[in-house]
Amino acid sequence: MIRGLWSAASGMQAQQMNIDVVANNLANVNTTGFKKSRVNFQDLLYSTIKAAGTEVATGLQIPTGIQVGNGSRTVATQKIFSQGDYMQTENPLDLIIEGDGFFQVLKPDGAVAYSRDGAFKVDSEGKVVNSDGFVLQPEIVLPSDATDLNVGIDGTVTVLLAGDSTAQNLGSIELVKFINPAGLKSIGKNLYEVTGASGDPVSGMPGEDGLGTIATGFLEMSNVKVVEEMVNMIVAQRAYEINAKAIQATDDMLQQANRIKR
Question: What is the pLDDT of residues 115-140, one digit of tens each?
Answer without folding.
Answer: 999 999 999 999 999 999 999 999 99
